[in-house]
Amino acid sequence: MARVDVIRVKGGSPLIGDVSVGGAKNSALKLMAVALLGEGRSVVSNVPRITDIAIMAEVLRRLGCAVTLDGTEAVIDVPFEPGAEADYDLVRRLRASICVLGPLLARRGYVRVALPGGDMIGSRGLDMHVAGLARMGAEISNEHGFVIASAPAGLRGTKIWLDFPSVGATENLLMAAVLAKGVTEIDNAAREPEIVDICEMLTAMGARIDGAGTSTLIVEGVDGPLKPVRHTTVGDRIVGGTWAYGAAMTRGDVTVHGVRPEFLDIALDKLVAAGATVEPGDDWFRVRMTERPKHVDIVTLPFPGFATDLLPMAIGLASVAEGASLITENIFDGRFMFVNEMVRLGADIRTDGHHAVVNGRERLSGAPVRATDIRAGAGLVIAGLCADGVTEVGEVHHIDRGYPDFVADLARLGVEVERTDVPEPTFDF
Ligand code: EPU
Question: Where does this protein hold phosphoenolpyruvate (predicted)?
């Protein structure tokens, strides 16, 4: 009989206490790819201890790098000529490994990376990555499930307008541009703190970048390879935001350490609108809630807008708030997939296209549900804290991909929680 991991939580107790947040997954993964632009030993510290980092380490090893993961440090030793291929068996497990496309094309003039395909939160195209690299002079084809790009004479600087401030496209084009001939201007670039983090590591390695954190990135190409460096990953604002929403939903009091509150400006402001008290520090903040949350309307947008990765927490808050909230998702077409699981917990949610109308209930009702992606998984566990009885969230390997110590952190914040594996019946024909 197969066994699956579940997290069981007992509803009713508020989240109370202090929680420390490590480095951002979505920064650390890309910082490991940034190392490919240097020759020699780079060290990325404050990396979260999650499966995705281990997969990224394997992607780099197969490119000829020596990689060790030691605690929260990734040591990456890059050869003079790294490999240029990333296979489907790893890319399908870690969509983010597509971020080796830009740096490898810049270093090697040729790259062959498996196409990752879609996932549970949406279709997730690569058209902007490809169009941008093509504008820089790369020849690109799509063959047998791989994207193949070559630029034997090197990439050249140019002006690129992104149709949408895509995080992944901005990163790939940025990493390609640092070794291109001449100046590249990326307009409508993503402004996420993780992009700024990447720019900081690249700059320390010798790249010339202006405009980090704005929607126009100007990159003056330099000769490669860059020099290896030590870099510390920025704190994970999504994990920090998850605890902030958990505190407000459970009428708790949580101090989150390791994340700068300005990275969560709108998300924290929405909590204030819902009735919470937020005390911001330099790299910490405290969220307290003493009453039932009031309804708030929330719209996800690229940074500095409300992060799509906190959409499940927004739906969770609205599900227990007084009154009706309108929640709008603008980034991923499949992000509402998990709403059916919230309905199993008794939430009153109707969706239409990219809108959800949520009528808050005083309490949800504990039930078995399953995680459909990282953030939905964490959101369902937190929602379970506002439910009568026990909530059992299945397929929690999704949560492991983004939250290194989720169960231990919940326990420290006063939750009755356990992680077990339960038998799953098999049905033979
Ligand atoms: N898009 C295109 N064409 C492109 C690129 C993007 O149509 O060439 C579309 C996507 O299909 C999507 C939207 O644009 O609908 C946004 O995509 P974006 O490129 O901004 O996102 P991403 O780089 O694929 C990263 C994070 C996500 C996070 C988004 C938005 C990583 C590894 N992933 O994805 O994080 O939700 O940015 O902020 O950095 C997560 O951590 O759980 C997660 C999903």
Answer: 25-26
